[in-house]
Amino acid sequence: MNNNIKQGFKRVWFITGATRGFGALIAKSAIEDGNAVVATGRDANRISEQLGESPAVLAIALDVTDEAQARAAVEAAVERFGRIDVLVNNAGFGLLAAVEESSDADVRRIYETNVFGLLNVTRAVLPVMRGQRSGHVINTSSIVGYQAAPGVGVYSSTKFAVEGITEALHAELKPLGIHATLIEPGFFRTDFLDASSLLVGEEIIDDYQETAGKLRRLASEINHRQPGDPAKLAAALVTLVDARTPPLRLPLGTDTLKAIAEKNAYVTTETATWEALSASTDFPV
C-alpha cells in the first residue's frame, strides 16, 4: 500500500517555485484540502518556514534548470509518498524590455527557467504518472501567453512555448489517463513585478517609449495594486484538480478573459480579410 493511502492523503502534489507567491499559496491550499505536497524551490528552508513541519509536507531544494536535481526531487517525492498525482510547473520569472532591448544573456536566462526548466521537471515526473496511468500536469502560462504585449515580448514567447508544449502534452497524455492544463493568470497582486521576480532590461531605446516604455512605467504604478486575488487563484487550482474533465486552458482573471476575447476577434477578422490570398497558395485541385 502506498504511503499516501496509509496516511490518508487525497492526492500528492509536486509544486515548483513554492518558496513564495503563487507556489506557496497553491501549496497551502492543497494542504488545507487534505493533500500531501512536495514543495520545491531554491530555498528549502524558507519553504519549511512558510508551510511548517508536517507529515503532509516535503520541502526540497530544486533549481529547475538542473535536470539531475529535478530527477532527484521526483525520486525523493516517490520515496516519501509513493506517487505523484499533480504537477504544478510554477517556477519562472519575467523580463520587462522591448524585444530589441532584451540582451542575449537575459533571453537565455529566462528560457532556461521558463521553458527548459519546465521541461526538465515534466520529463522527470511523467514516468511516474505513466506508471500510475493517472495524473494531472498543470503548466503556468500567462495572459501574455495568449496575447503578447509590447514590453514583454521575450517573456511572452516563453509562455507561448509553454502553451505549445502543453497543447501537445494534452493530446499525448490523454490516452494514458493523464490530464494537462494551462493556467493563464492575468495581473494578480503578488510580488511578480518586484525585482525578485522580474528582470528589467538595462538598455532603454527612446523609440520604444510609447510602446514598451508604457508598460515599464505601468508596472511600477500597478505593483501590489493588481486586480487579481492570488489566494482565490490558489483555491481555483484545487477546484480544477477535482474536475472530472479538466480543460486544456483555464484563464484566471477578468483581464485574461478580455484579452482572449479581443485576440480571438482580431484573428477572426484578419483571417477573413486575407482569406482569398491565404487560400490561393494551394495546388489546383
TrEMBL record:
UniProt key word Oxidoreductase: yes
GO molecular-function terms, A-Z: oxidoreductase activity
SUPFAM superfamilies cross-referenced by the UniProt entry: NAD(P)-binding Rossmann-fold domains
Chain ranges of the Ketoreductase domain: 11-186
InterPro entries, per the entry: KR_dom, NAD(P)-bd_dom_sf, Sc_DH/Rdtase_CS, SDR_fam, SDR_oxidoreductase
UniProt keyword terms in alphabetical order: Oxidoreductase
PROSITE patterns attached to this UniProt entry: ADH_SHORT (PS00061)
NCBIfam families listed in its UniProt record: PRK06180.1
Family in the record: Belongs to the short-chain dehydrogenases/reductases (SDR) family.
Protein name: SDR family NAD(P)-dependent oxidoreductase
Species, as recorded: Caballeronia novacaledonica
